[in-house]
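RECORD TYPE: inverse folding
INPUT: structure tokens
STRUCTURE:
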């Protein structure tokens, strides 16, 4: 059995950033395992710009952003295996993987970094009535077909779901000559960034119908039309509000799910809200020496935040390899209540944490003229007013170690949304 200090599962933006930071933190024995035939992950098919503004202070396309981190991995001499599928991870950090050159092999790791990214929610999870004709694609599959394979999935398109990939594909299909007739969104708000609604729909005159869903798919061999209807507060279609659109393609952009089958086999505790691992301030999961970062942990809106988080995971994994787990005197739970759906991390260790810890979260609905508040125990330590907060955009607060120490022996931290 081979052995490495750190094995990184996934060679996308999270895995690359984590591996690079681990190497810079003094660990040389690192291996990245990637199932695709090249590094870069999903960014290779994201040819639009808007990446890198936080990290590199300039606007890059997805492949350009990925290339920056690939170059770091190459320059640092980090080992990687492509076309390699990880089959299993045990709680003792034995990684079983396979590829066509090495066959099936096992690696004993001192630390594992989970960076498998996320996958799209399939049609089967939606219970849309109708046949199963050709012409129904997830938005990410359509993006790959257009941007990498060079195929146009269809000429007349309806999109269900207003997540960022769906919005971006509305523009992309339009630029390729297709007619995007409508984007329907089940919720009363969009799941994507405001800038994508403006740049991808408004600029091209594509209508966005909120509180609408697909109630029928017509066509046996190929999609011939879609019926959408308005939904009420109970999320059920309202009779009499049906609208028919003739089309040959339906794109689904109905949410992303962290790819956590491997996390489950390792015995990692998963959050019921995010479907990602429950982690502490070091981004360490419930299994000692297994860390998680990027979209496998929780779905991000900006890849810059993925890279920042992954660098933190890489640094902490390197620290674990060199020092082992240092017992913590105390772990403080972070409560997400009153509009805050979850937090990452879920707990912090006052004696082990960095000088500052960034806590990221999403809200459960649209809030206008409200404030993000944070309490150490019963005492409010932060109140930040915001004109608008939406589930499509991540929010964050920073916990300062020195400030936390001033509040003595508190048992929990609470983050919530309050009216101004």
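DESIGNED SEQUENCE:
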């Amino acid at each position: 059995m081979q052995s490495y200090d750190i094995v990184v599962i996934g060679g996308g933006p999270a895995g690359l950033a984590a591996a690079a930071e681990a190497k810079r933190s003094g660990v040389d024995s690192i291996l990245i395992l990637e199932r695709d035939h090249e590094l870069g992950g999903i960014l290779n098919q994201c040819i639009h710009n808007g990446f890198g503004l936080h990290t590199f202070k300039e606007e890059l396309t997805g492949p350009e952003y990925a290339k920056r981190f690939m170059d770091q991995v190459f320059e640092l001499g980090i080992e990687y295996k492509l076309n390699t599928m990880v089959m299993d991870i045990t709680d003792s950090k034995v990684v079983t993987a396979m590829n066509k050159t090495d066959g099936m092999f096992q690696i004993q790791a001192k630390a594992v970094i989970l960076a498998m990214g996320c996958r799209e929610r399939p049609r089967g999870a939606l219970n849309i009535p109708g046949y199963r004709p050709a012409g129904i694609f997830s938005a990410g599959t359509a993006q790959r077909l257009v941007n990498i394979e060079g195929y146009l999935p269809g000429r007349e398109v309806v999109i269900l779901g207003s997540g960022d990939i769906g919005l971006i594909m509305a523009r992309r299909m339009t630029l390729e000559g297709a007619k995007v007739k409508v984007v329907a969104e089940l919720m009363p708000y969009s799941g994507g960034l405001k800038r994508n609604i403006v740049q991808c729909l408004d600029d091209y005159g594509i209508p966005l119908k909120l509180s609408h869903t697909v109630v029928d798919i017509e066509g046996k061999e190929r999609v011939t039309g879609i019926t959408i209807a308005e939904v009420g507060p109970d999320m059920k279609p309202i009779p009499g509000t049906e609208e028919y659109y003739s089309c040959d393609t339906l794109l689904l952009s109905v949410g992303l799910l962290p790819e956590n089958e491997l996390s489950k086999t390792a015995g990692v505790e998963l959050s019921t809200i995010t479907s990602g691992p429950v982690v502490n301030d070091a981004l360490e999961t419930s299994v000692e020496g297994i860390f998680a970062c990027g979209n496998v942990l929780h779905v991000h809106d900006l890849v810059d935040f993925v890279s920042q988080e992954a660098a933190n995971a890489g640094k902490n994994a390197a620290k674990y390899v060199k020092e082992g787990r240092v017992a913590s005197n105390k772990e403080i739970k972070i409560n997400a209540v009153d509009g805050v759906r979850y937090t990452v991390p879920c707990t912090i260790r006052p004696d082990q944490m960095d000088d500052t810890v960034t806590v990221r979260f999403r809200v459960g609905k649209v809030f206008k003229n409200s404030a993000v508040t944070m309490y150490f125990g019963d005492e409010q330590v932060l109140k930040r007013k915001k004109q608008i907060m939406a589930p499509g955009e991540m929010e964050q607060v920073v916990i300062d170690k020195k400030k936390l120490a001033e509040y003595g022996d508190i048992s929990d931290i609470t983050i919530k949304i309050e009216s101004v």
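NOTES: The chain has a mean pLDDT of 95.
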